[in-house]
Design goal:
The complex is a heterotrimer of chains A (336), B (380) and C (344). Chain A is α/β, with parallel strands linked by helices and 336 residues long. Helix content of chain A is 29%, strand content 30%. Chain A contains ten helices and 17 strands. The longest helix of chain A has 18 residues. The termini of chain A are far apart. Chain A has two domains: 242 residues, P-loop containing nucleotide triphosphate hydrolases (Rossmann fold, 3-Layer(aba) Sandwich); 65 residues, no CATH class. Chain B has two domains: 217 residues, 3-Layer(aba) Sandwich (Rossmann fold), CATH 3.40.50; 145 residues, Rossmann fold (3-Layer(aba) Sandwich), CATH 3.40.50.1980. In chain B, strands 7-6-5-8-9 form a five-stranded parallel β-sheet, with helices on both faces. A five-stranded mixed β-sheet of chain B has the order 13-10-15-16-17. The relative contact order of chain B is 0.13. In chain C, helix 1 packs antiparallel against helix 3, helix 12 packs across helix 13 and helix 13 crosses helix 14. Chain C is built from 14 helices and no strands. With 344 residues, chain C is mostly helical. Classes of the chains: A alpha/beta (336), B alpha/beta (380), C mainly alpha (344). At the B-C interface, strand 11, strand 14, helix 10 and helix 11 of B face helix 3 and helix 7 of C.
Chain lengths: 336, 380, 344
C-alpha cells in the first residue's frame, strides 16, 4: 500500500479571506490529514468553502489561523521555489488557449525544474512521457487542446500535474461538466495514481457516488467544519446522511445512495420475480406507490417468450400493459 | 536705374509714417468704383449707398455671394432691402476677428472704432495692444471658445469675421440670429497681394474715410507696379527660391499661384514649385523637397526660425541645403512681439509694396542696394 | 514535433530574407527611384554625393527606424496580449502612447511650450521627444503602481484604458483652444512618421528597444506559464506581482520609446502577434517573441514602402498604412472561422 506516511496535515486551521481590514472567516478549527497513496474526496454542499480549503492547502490563499504541514514542514516555511515540487494544483479555470498542443501543456508541468528559458532536459522529457502514458494521452500528444473532448482535456491537466512530479496533487472539481463515463474514468485514473505511484490526491467533487465508492478518505464539509473518515464511517455515523439530507432527499445505507423522499404513498401489491419485478417496483415508487402485499390493487409481472407483460387488477377490472411506461401512465398517481 | 529713385522716395515717405499708421502723401486720387484686381469684392454705388458683394468668402465655396448695403447714417435705405443686410456707416464699433482687419483700420487711423479683437497674443500693433491691456478693447476668443455673449454685449455695428469652412455650422452662425451683423471678409483668400490690399476700400467706406483708403490703395498699387516693372525690365537670371520648412518628415508646399508664390514671381524670383497650382498647400516628403531644394539659391519663410541654429535643431539635414550653406536664409520675423504677434501677418496686407521691396532686395539685391528690409531679416 | 521545428526554421529564415529584401527596397524607393548599384555605392561611400545624402541622411535612418519600431511595437503587443489574456490587447491599453501624446500636446498646443530649451544647446530638437518620453514615463509609473496594489490584472487593464481616455479628453481640450497652425503641427505628429529621426536619436531608440527586448525575452518562461492562467502560474512558482511589473515595464519602455520618436503607430502592436501566431503555428513565446519582432520589422518596412507609393514626393501617412494593414487582421481575429476572438 505504499509508505502511508502523512503528506498533508492541518491543525486548528482557519480558512477565509482578508480584504484590507475586513476578515471573512469561512471555517475554523480544521484538523485534517492525508497520506501518501490515499485518494481523498472533499465533498460538501455548494458555498461551504471547498475551493477555499484547497487553495489554502496549496498556498494560494494565506490561512487565517492554525497550521498546515506538508511533507512534515510548515507551509509558510517552504520557499516559493520548493513548494511547486511538493504540491500541484488543478483549478476550475478552463483552458483559454487554442493553439497549444497536448504535449506542450503537459510539458508546462515541468516548470519548476527547467532552466531560465524553459528547455526540457532528458529527465523532463521522460517525466512528460510517463505522465502522458499514465493518463492514456500518448495518442493525442500532437493534437491541439481545443480539438479534444472535455474528458481528454481534463486528463491533460491531470497529466500536467503528474509531470510536475509532486507527492500531493490537489484538484478543484476535476469531474465537473463531464459526462458519466468520463467522470468514472477520471476518478478511476486518480485511484490508479494513488495506487501505482504512491501519490496523494485530494479532490473536491459533487459526484457523491464515485466519491463514496472510490475514495479512501472523505473530507465532509458542512457549515460547522470538516469531518474526515472512510466513506463507510461517515455513513455509519449518519453524518453523511445529515449533511445532505433535506425534506426531499434521504439516504439509504443499503443502497449507499440518496433518493427522493416520497411523502404519501399508496400501497400496491406486486407479484413477480427477478430484474423485471425490481424495476417495476422502482417505477411504481416514482409514481408514489409502495409495495404492500395487502393492497387491493395488484400488479402482476409476467414474462413469456422474452416479452414482459404487466397485468393490473383491482379485483374488478383487469388491464394489460406492454411497457412500464404504459403501466405507469395507466395507473392513477399514487402520491396525492 | 533712374526709376528707382522715385520708388525709393515714395517708399521712404510711406515708411516714415509707419509708426502709428500710414498717412498718404498729399496728392489725392479720385474714388474708383470698380476694382480690377480683387476678385472677391465688388463695390457699387446704389442710390447714395454702397452695395458690397463678397464672392466665395470661404474655402471650397462656389458661386456663393453675400450682399451688404453700407448706408450712410442720414440716408434712406435704397429699395426694399431688409434690415439685416444693412450696415450704417460710418460705424462706431467693430469687432475684428483677424489682425489684418486691425491693420486696415489702423492704416486709416480708425483704430478707435475697434471694440473687440480675437486672439490678443497675435496682435502686433502696439496701440491696439495697449488698448487690450487697458481693457478698452476686449478679446472675444476664437473657434471653440468664441465668447458670443461678450460680442453681443460689446454691441458692435459689425463683426468682421472670416470663414474657413461654410460657417453655417460654425461658432459665428448663431451670432447672426442674435442680430449681430457678421461680415465674412474674404481678403485672405485673394491670391494677388494687391487684391488683398484693395479690401482697404471696404474699410474706407465703413469708417467714412473713403478718400484716404482709395489714395492709399492707389499709391501702394502704383509703387508695387512700378517696382515690378523695374524688376521685369532688368535683365538677368531669376534666382530660385525655396519656401517653408519641414515638420515631422512632411513639407507643406504652397502652390505657385498662392499669395507668396506671386510675390516671389513679381520680385523677380523663380519659385521652385512655381508650376504647381492649386487652392491648398500640398504635403510632400522631406526627401523629395530636399532634392528639389538643391536648385534653390534663396530660402524664404522657414517657419518660426529666428536663427540658423533653430533650423538645424529641427532638422540637421537642412544644413546641407544650398541656400543654407550660402547664408541665404531669410525669415519674415523682423517685427515680432514677445507673444505671437508678427507684423508680417498684420500690416503687410496693407503694404504689399513694402513686402515686395523686401523680397526684391533679397532676390535682386543689385536693384535696391543698401536697402534694409522691413519685414524680413537674414538668418544668422 | 519535427514538423513543428522545420516550420519554425523555415519561417524564421523566410522572414529574415524578406526583411532584408524589403530593407533594400525601402532604400531604393522613395520620391525618386534609385537603382541598386547607386544605393550600394552610396552606402559604401563611393556613390554620387547627391545620392549619398539622400540614401544616408533620409532613407537609411527611415529604414532602420522602421525595423526598430516594428520589432518594438510587436513585442510590446505580444506581452500585453499574454499578460491580459486578451487577443485584442495592444500597447495602447497601457495608455503609454496616450501619455506620450499628452506630453507632445502640452508642448505644441500650449502657448508656452512645456519644455523650452535654449536653441543652441545639445538638447535642442530633443524637446518634443523628451516631452513625449516624460508623458509615457509618467503613465508607466501610474500603471505599475496600480498593478502593485491590485490583485486582479483586469483592474489594471481597465485603469490603463480609462487613463488613455482621460488623456484623450485633455488633449481634445487643448486642441479646442488652439489655433489652426498649432493644431496642424499636432495633427501631423499624430500621423506617425519614421523619417525625421537623426542618427543620435536612432542610437537612443536602439538602446531603449534593446533594453525592452532583452527584458521581455528573459521573461519567456513565465510568459508561457501565464498562458495556462494566473492560478497555474502561481502554483508552479511564478511570482505574479513581480512578473507583472517587469512585463509592464518592458512593454512601456518599448511602446513609449517608439511613440516618443515616431509618434503613435496604430495597430501594429495588436495585429502583428496574431500574424506571427499564424505563421509559426505556436503559442510558445520562445519562438513567438523573436518571430513577432521579425514580422513587425517586415510589416513596418512594407508600410513605409507603401506610404511612398504615390510617388513624386506625395506620401500617405504611416498610420494610415498601418491601419489599412492592421484592421483587416483585427477583423479576421474577431470574425474569422476559428473565432479567435473568443480564445487565443
Amino acid at each position: 500500500m505504499g509508505t502511508n506516511e502523512i503528506i498533508a496535515e492541518t491543525s486548528d486551521l482557519a480558512i477565509g479571506y482578508r480584504n484590507r481590514d475586513r476578515v471573512f472567516r469561512v471555517l475554523e478549527g480544521l484538523s485534517l490529514k492525508a497520506r501518501h497513496g490515499e485518494l481523498v474526496a472533499l465533498i460538501g454542499r455548494n458555498g461551504t468553502g471547498k475551493s477555499t480549503l484547497l487553495r489554502t492547502l496549496t498556498g494560494l490563499i494565506p490561512p487565517l489561523g492554525g497550521r498546515i504541514m506538508l511533507e512534515g514542514n510548515p507551509l509558510n516555511s517552504i520557499s516559493l521555489s520548493q513548494l511547486p515540487r511538493i504540491v500541484s494544483f488543478v483549478s476550475t479555470e478552463p483552458v483559454a488557449i487554442h493553439n497549444i498542443k497536448v504535449r506542450d501543456v503537459v510539458s508546462l508541468g515541468r516548470f519548476p525544474y527547467t532552466n531560465w528559458i524553459g528547455t526540457l532536459s532528458q529527465t523532463d522529457e521522460e517525466a512528460v512521457q510517463s505522465a502522458m502514458e499514465a493518463t492514456g494521452l500518448t495518442g493525442l500528444a500532437g493534437r491541439s487542446i481545443d480539438s479534444i473532448s472535455d474528458g481528454e482535456r481534463q486528463r491533460t491537466l491531470i497529466a500536467r500535474s503528474l509531470a510536475q512530479d509532486t507527492g500531493l496533487l490537489v484538484m478543484d472539481e476535476p469531474t465537473a461538466f463531464l459526462d458519466l463515463p468520463s467522470r468514472y474514468g477520471i476518478v478511476s485514473l486518480l485511484r490508479k495514481l494513488t495506487r501505482e505511484k504512491d501519490k496523494c490526491v485530494i479532490y473536491s467533487t459533487h459526484d457523491l457516488d464515485t466519491a463514496i465508492n472510490e475514495a479512501d478518505r472523505i473530507w465532509l464539509m458542512t457549515g460547522d467544519g470538516v469531518t474526515e473518515g472512510a466513506p463507510e464511517d461517515l455513513m455509519l455515523t449518519g453524518r453523511l446522511a445529515r449533511a445532505f439530507e433535506s425534506p426531499l432527499l434521504s439516504f439509504s445505507i443499503n443502497d449507499g445512495t440518496f433518493s427522493f423522499v416520497r411523502s404519501r404513498q399508496t400501497g400496491i401489491a406486486l407479484e413477480g420475480k427477478g430484474k423485471a419485478a425490481k424495476l417495476t417496483a422502482r417505477a411504481l415508487a416514482r409514481c408514489g406507490y409502495t409495495t404492500d402485499p395487502q393492497a387491493l390493487l395488484t400488479v402482476k409481472v409476467s414474462e413469456s417468450a422474452g416479452e414482459t407483460e404487466w397485468t393490473v387488477t383491482d379485483g374488478v377490472n383487469v388491464r394489460r400493459y406492454g411497457s412500464l411506461y404504459d403501466l405507469v401512465t395507466g395507473l392513477p398517481s399514487g402520491d396525492h | 536705374m533712374s526709376r528707382i529713385i522715385p520708388v525709393i522716395i515714395s517708399a521712404a515717405l510711406l515708411i516714415s509714417s509707419c509708426r502709428h499708421g500710414v498717412n498718404p502723401p498729399v496728392a489725392e486720387q479720385s474714388t474708383d468704383d470698380s476694382l480690377n484686381v480683387a476678385g472677391r469684392l465688388k463695390l457699387e454705388k446704389v442710390a447714395g449707398a454702397t452695395r458690397v458683394t463678397v464672392t466665395n468668402p470661404w474655402q471650397n465655396s462656389t458661386g456663393k455671394e453675400l450682399v451688404w448695403y453700407l448706408v450712410p447714417r442720414d440716408s434712406a435705405v435704397p429699395g426694399d432691402v431688409s434690415e439685416d443686410q444693412i450696415i450704417r456707416v460710418p460705424v462706431s464699433r467693430i469687432v475684428c476677428m483677424s489682425v489684418t482687419h486691425i491693420a486696415m483700420l489702423q492704416a486709416l487711423d480708425a483704430g478707435n472704432v475697434i471694440a473687440g479683437i480675437s486672439g490678443s497674443s497675435l496682435v502686433y500693433d502696439s496701440v491696439i495692444r495697449e488698448g487690450i491691456s487697458s481693457g478698452r478693447i476686449r478679446d472675444v476668443g476664437y473657434e471653440g471658445n468664441l465668447n458670443r455673449e461678450l460680442i453681443i454685449s460689446l454691441n458692435p455695428d459689425v463683426l468682421m469675421a472670416y470663414g474657413v469652412a461654410d460657417p453655417s455650422a460654425g461658432s459665428t452662425a448663431r451670432l447672426a440670429d442674435a442680430g449681430i451683423k457678421v461680415f465674412y471678409n474674404a481678403d485672405y483668400l485673394e491670391e494677388h497681394p494687391l487684391a488683398r490690399c484693395e479690401w482697404l476700400r471696404l474699410f474706407g467706406i465703413l469708417t467714412g474715410k473713403v478718400q484716404m483708403a482709395d489714395s492709399i490703395v492707389a499709391s501702394v498699387s502704383e509703387a508695387y507696379r512700378e517696382l515690378t516693372a523695374l524688376v521685369r525690365g532688368s535683365a538677368g537670371r531669376r534666382p530660385a527660391v525655396l519656401l517653408g520648412s519641414p515638420w515631422e518628415d512632411v513639407w507643406y508646399i504652397s502652390p505657385g499661384n498662392s499669395y507668396i508664390g506671386r510675390l516671389i514671381e513679381d520680385a523677380g524670383g523663380k519659385y521652385i514649385y512655381g508650376e504647381m497650382t492649386g487652392a491648398h498647400s500640398v504635403p510632400l516628403s522631406v526627401e523629395s523637397v530636399f532634392r528639389k531644394a538643391e536648385e534653390a539659391d534663396i530660402w524664404i519663410n522657414p517657419g518660426t526660425a529666428d536663427r540658423l541654429s533653430d533650423i538645424v535643431a529641427t532638422d540637421p539635414r537642412m544644413a546641407s541645403l544650398h541656400p543654407f550653406r550660402e547664408g541665404q536664409v531669410w525669415n519674415n520675423r523682423r517685427r515680432i512681439t514677445s507673444g505671437d504677434g508678427n507684423d508680417y501677418w498684420e500690416s503687410a496686407v496693407v503694404r504689399p509694396d513694402l513686402l515686395l521691396m523686401d523680397l526684391v532686395s533679397i532676390i535682386h539685391p543689385e536693384l535696391l542696394p543698401g536697402f534694409v528690409q522691413y519685414y524680413y531679416r537674414r538668418l544668422e | 514535433m519535427i514538423a513543428v521545428r522545420t516550420r519554425i526554421v523555415i519561417a524564421i529564415a523566410g522572414l529574415s530574407l524578406l526583411m532584408l529584401l524589403l530593407f533594400i527596397a525601402d532604400l531604393l524607393l522613395g520620391s525618386t527611384h534609385m537603382n541598386f548599384a547607386d544605393v550600394m555605392g552610396s552606402l559604401f561611400g563611393k556613390g554620387d554625393p547627391g545620392d549619398e545624402i539622400i540614401v544616408m541622411q533620409f532613407r537609411l535612418p527611415k529604414a532602420i527606424t522602421a525595423v526598430l519600431a516594428g520589432a518594438a511595437m510587436s513585442v510590446s503587443g505580444l506581452l500585453m496580449q499574454t499578460l491580459f489574456r486578451n487577443p485584442l490587447a495592444g500597447p495602447d491599453v497601457l495608455g503609454v502612447s496616450s501619455g506620450a501624446g499628452l506630453g507632445v500636446a502640452l508642448t505644441l498646443l500650449t502657448l508656452t511650450p512645456l519644455i523650452t530649451l535654449p536653441a543652441g544647446s545639445l538638447l535642442a530638437g530633443w524637446g518634443l521627444i523628451l516631452a513625449a518620453w516624460a508623458g509615457a514615463g509618467v503613465v508607466m509609473l501610474i500603471i505599475m503602481a496600480v498593478s502593485a496594489r491590485m490583485r486582479d490584472i483586469m483592474t489594471v487593464l481597465i485603469v490603463g484604458l480609462l487613463l488613455a481616455s482621460a488623456i484623450s479628453a485633455v488633449v481634445s481640450l487643448l486642441q479646442y483652444f488652439s489655433n489652426e497652425a498649432m493644431l496642424r503641427t499636432y495633427v501631423i505628429w499624430t500621423m506617425g512618421n519614421l523619417g525625421s529621426i537623426s542618427y543620435p536619436q536612432i542610437r537612443a531608440l536602439s538602446l531603449a528597444t534593446a533594453v525592452g527586448l532583452i527584458i521581455a525575452f528573459i521573461m519567456v518562461k513565465p510568459l508561457n506559464a501565464m498562458l495556462m492562467g494566473e492560478t497555474f502560474s502561481r502554483t508552479v512558482g511564478v511570482k505574479m506581482q513581480r512578473t507583472r511589473i517587469i512585463l509592464l515595464a518592458s512593454a512601456s519602455i518599448l511602446a513609449g520609446s517608439v511613440t516618443a520618436f515616431c509618434g503613435p503607430l496604430a495597430f501594429i502592436g495588436v495585429a502583428v502577434p496574431h500574424v506571427a501566431r499564424l505563421i509559426f503555428g505556436t503559442t510558445d513565446h520562445r519562438t513567438l517573441m523573436p518571430g513577432a519582432a521579425l514580422c513587425g520589422a517586415v510589416i513596418m518596412l512594407l508600410s513605409d514602402i507603401i506610404s511612398n507609393a504615390p510617388g513624386g514626393g506625395h506620401i500617405i501617412p504611416v498610420n494610415t498604412v498601418t491601419s489599412l494593414v492592421g484592421i483587416p487582421v483585427v477583423l479576421w481575429i474577431i470574425i474569422g472561422k476559428r473565432g479567435l476572438g473568443r480564445k487565443f
